[in-house]
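Bug: token stream looks shifted between consecutive jobs. Job 1:
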Amino acid sequence: MSCIVIQKRCTSNHQRCSYYTKNAICKVSCGQVKLEEGIDDESCELVNGVELMLGEGVDCFHSYLFTAVKNNNETGILLLSDIFGFEDSATRDFAYRVACNGYNVLVPDLFRGNPWKKDQSRANFEEWLARQAPDRVAKDITASTKWMVNEFVAAGISKKLGIIGFCFGGGRLVETLAQDQGTYFGIGACFYGTRMDPSLATNIKVPVLFVSGDNDQLCPVGILNDMEKSIGRGSKVMVFKGRGHGFAHRPESPEEDGDAEEAFLVMRNWLNEALIVSKY
């Protein structure tokens, strides 16, 4: 799996960034991220961010890698974005927070430069989605996984990878874990996954945390409960009363901020128990 670092300017709102060139890094400040209880502020001083090109030839695609500096736990997390893509600020802010907790977070461009744009008409959504060929998306996720395996698992650093998915990415998380069957991924966190195939749940061999709101018509709680039972292995469904789609990484009110914070803390502990504590 080839990988090159390309010149790019960081765009996340909370980052103190500079231009960087091949083999250089963009350093970002962790000072504006609220740290969870028990996390030493000094240990989260910097997160490195760099844009990568993964794959080969016509199958190359962009990805963004966030790595913790001082408190790096040497564990990889694959984060699958919602329809707004890997450059969206809400997705990158969330990935940044995960990295601040010690992880190396890879966010691939699942849409090859053509994410859904907020100003597009909903009438065109199905046409846009039809252009996101499932086989191609799955192939890019596999390439991203193999790159992380080579970086962390094959190097003997991390025993297993973690995977997080939002909305569209949550549906792809289910497909990815069903295909992987515990080979490389040790845990999953699925936030209000859309277009999920419940029949795949029996093929998932690792615990999955499902997070959603009871007002989310795109992610019915009943389907999540059925999938939790099918997967077993300590899987969990966490439902937030009154919340709709996207609240955990796109909160739009103080109340949603509070629920988003709770969801993040539960996810953080979920990942830590499976990927960090289990290593020792």
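Job 2, same session, no restart:
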Amino acid sequence: MSDWHNKLDKAASGKWKKLQDLSMKSDNRICADCSGSDPKWVSANIGVFLCLKCSDIHRSLGADTSKVLSLTLDEWSESDMESVIEVGGNSYANSIYESFLPRDYSKPKPDASNEDRTKFIRSKYVLQEFLTPSLRIVASKSSFHSVDSSKSSSSFGSKNSNKSVEPGGFIGNLKVKVVQGTNLAIRDMLTSDPYVILMLGQQKAQTTVKNSNLNPVWNEELKFSVPQHFGTLKLQVYDHDYISADDIMGEAEIDLQAMITAALAYGDVDVRGNMQVGKWLKMNDNALIEDSFVNIVDGKIRQEVHLKLQNVECGEMELQLEWLSLDE
């Protein structure tokens, strides 16, 4: 343990522990820009974990654009630790900086040339070519922090900045359409009677029961108020039983970060034409079957989510999310 680490007070030690834990998440175990393994460098103000080659290019951009620190060699200020922790790491940052990345765009690989690596990193962070268009007005020197407090509107350049949110209040509504399940697990003799429970904070909603159906189609809409300090949307599938307790048929968590980031940027804006405004990336530690894109469709912010149920032998779920204003 370094002398610097020994000198940290209790509060700073706690933040350093959170930063270390964050660095061990699967999406932060690869470089945010080239997917190189075991990154040991971090852009403190952007909030991404980087390999040595990409960190060298970040450093060449200047500390005002990307402040590069080593996880093993440098001393960290509390503010730098807080900045990275607040962003949440690679998947959160990339959901913003790569939200408009063309689907057929080839990101640099770990063995990419220095020229290709430099071109991509400058396009991503300096020119902001892959950023949602409405956010490109934000200076590249600013970091993009996760939406979690009254400062969210300034962090994301929200068009809703004229609206104040009371502490502990709600920032909008979320309509969740439970579309269907596929190849759900058997919990009775040959079939199951599935239903879905969704939970957001203390709010809970449930679909109807579909009797004797392993591929049920619900197309049912459930609505939630989204609190200022939101967490994940939790999904559980159960088999209804008239005699004993209902058996669980799998579960999953839905990360709302990409949806709410887009909502704060576009919620009250009359956008003409359909466009992609964000995405939730498939990673080893989430339930996504494929990347989930946030789009503006007919003036509404919508997201389709395809999930592989967790802690169960089989089963998939399809959902559609739509953002609503508080008065809808």
